[in-house]
Amino acid sequence: MNAPLASSAADPVVIVGGGFTGLSAAYELAKAGRRVVVLEKQSMVGGLAMGFTVGEFTLERFYHHWFTNDVHVMDLIKEVGLADQVVFRPTRTGMYYANTIFRLSTPLDLLRFKALSMPNRIRLGLLALRARRIKDWRAIEGMTARDWLIKLAGPEVYRVVWEPLLSGKFGPYADKVGAVWFWKKLALRGGSRASDGREVLAYYKGGFSELAEAIKRRLEEMGVEIRLNAGATGLEVADGQATAVWTEAGRVPASDVLLTQALPLIADLFEGNLDSAYVASLRRIDYLANICLVLELDRSLSETYWLNVNDPTFPFVGVIEHTNFEPPESYGGRHIVYLSKYLPETDELYRMGDEEVLEFAMPHLQRMFPNFRREWVRKHHVWRARFSQQISEPNYSKLIPAEQTPLANVLITTLAQIYPEDRGTNYAIREGRRVGRVLAARFGRAAPRPAIEADAA
């Protein structure tokens, strides 16, 4: 490798990652007249919202929706002229407990939830209201979700409703999840309801992948260069700044760099360039992987869109029948079901082959839906994401790395940093646009010196 060259204001801003954070940052930079290159290691943009084909239709690999209070994504969609592609629909939610599916879409459903005593049904119903009254999340940041939920709703509600969900989603990390993470989930879902109490969600016609592709097309019209199959392999550093990003295809000179991948992947890029303690701080936050089995069926499993599974013997934390939200006609009459599981990457299920995953899931589905038969499955897909869910521990705010790195012209903006919110396209877009404006403001002036000097490459 040749000696590093000094970065120049004439060089582009290089964004590593073509998810919604990277695309939104590129949008703000392009509006400000900056040259931008987006590097994406996959063959398409969208991150976890990347799509695949179902017949002649497109569907995201991992289930997605928006809440009605997701204003940041709606603002961007309006700006790029795509507001007519968003649909809002009421949904049916439920819970699988003690071999029974309980409907939990409305307050009346909750009052009929016989798995809890009547006083505890009321406690469960009041929980979201009590969560929304909390204005300063710092007051509960030192608590675990377990302790906070028991304090607010009592041990029976926790045992029946929340403990199985926490264990199903976070596995070995269940008792380490912070109260703030759960509080934000309750407050967000509680604010996305119709006047009759039903949850109302939003979706993009053609899928979230199509939205990402539409934004990509708009960016290219604005002069942004988007390179696919171009994952970053390293940074070139000189005098406390990044002068270029290296990919398998070669060197990309940079005036500024924005890194949007998961923190452990960012740490890999910094190895050998920065102090080892700083690199270790990026690896301090733990992540769970996700495996998602997507079924194309010739008929529906149930009338429920989102079925939480409160049965520790069932291997998936949720059964999401997407076509009870976006109709089967959008997929040529196929009924689409997602089976999702968060788990360590070392878990046996994560390492199974695609056919093994299907065969593993079959008896569990037949136990939940006794009429279900293997012949209903027209096709199946298995998707895996290594860095899917960060673990938001108590006092998580003290673990989050700063946006400004020790390299003067390198920023990091990831879904692990949007706390107290959790990951999602709405907040990815919010943070992408914000940091894009920060980088745009640097045009024509030197970036500030970092507090910690970087080692020379």
UniProtKB/TrEMBL annotation:
GO terms for molecular function: oxidoreductase activity. Pfam families: Amino_oxidase. It comes from the Bacteria. Residues 20-414 form the Amine oxidase domain. InterPro entries: Amino_oxidase, FAD/NAD-bd_sf, Zeta_carotene_desat/Oxidored. NCBIfam families: PRK07233.1. PANTHER family: AMINE OXIDASE, PROTOPORPHYRINOGEN OXIDASE. This is COG1232: Protoporphyrinogen oxidase. It comes from uncultured Sphingomonadaceae bacterium.
